[in-house]
Amino acid sequence: MGLDVNHKISKLAAGLYFVATPIGTARDITLRALDILASADVITAEDTRSMRKLMDIHGIALNGRPLLAYHDHNGEKVRPKVMQYLEEGKSVAYGSEAGTPMIADPGYHLAKQVADAGYLVTSAPGPVAFITALTLSGLPSDRILFEGFLPNTKSQRCSKLSELSEIPATLAFYESPKRIAATLKDAALTLGGERSAALARELTKKFEEVRRGTLNELLYSVTEHPPKGEIVLLIDRARSSLVNQDDIDDQIRSALDKMSLKDAADMISAATGQPRRTIYQRALAIDKNDDG
Ligand code: SAM
To answer: Closest Cα to atom 20, ligand 1: which residue?
Structure first.
């Protein structure tokens, strides 16, 4: 039994209609998205069961309209069917399992093929998990770099993080509860443990929570209280202007007297919040210079 009857049914022009769906709370969907779901000739969805459920909640009947699965594993097979519907002058709605299509979700190849063929592509915008997290994080929102999921292996993850270390933007990642501790550990090592960050989980849901602190603090927090559910991790840009280079050089010299270059870089990066790569290269130069 539907709860809402806020949608209007009208004839839509032929084309592809992206529809953003909720990332938790079912009522986070726009009236226009509901109109599209009620009116499109064909509905396509990353997950047909969750689309059915969402439509039921909002009182939208399928009324015999086709409901097709479209995801990473069947895209090539389903795209020709979508093109056929468009050729017949039909309107096709597409929704992800959660949030906005194409944001760490399928839809790119579909949008491209439909646009290249000259058909209408339009979108009913709505929730995006990393944007929602950004608004709660207390981190700067002037520039944001969305990376989606980091690679699975430690070496690839560290190399990706060090590629991002100097970018003057808030960095946004999607993460799983199983991997969050390993990711925070690698981030602290690569970017420096003193960088500010925020972990936002279960956004718009009953157990919504935001933990704010340095990477080291967040690592401690997830080790003590492992988070459950869906997670966005946001990391502040490097704050190099706040650090005095002479002080860092002194710390490097004194560390190099006692430990290996690698350990010195790890320690000073964690202590100063400076990217590990920057410290390592500086230590290498100092080591060479002092030796020569
Ligand atoms: N298309 C979605 C969007 O617009 O944000 C993202 C889909 S991606 C496959 C799923 C990931 O997004 C989750 O693993 C999690 O990292 C993040 N996510 C989705 N919903 C979330 C929520 N309610 N709270 C926190 N993170 C969420």
So the answer is: 23
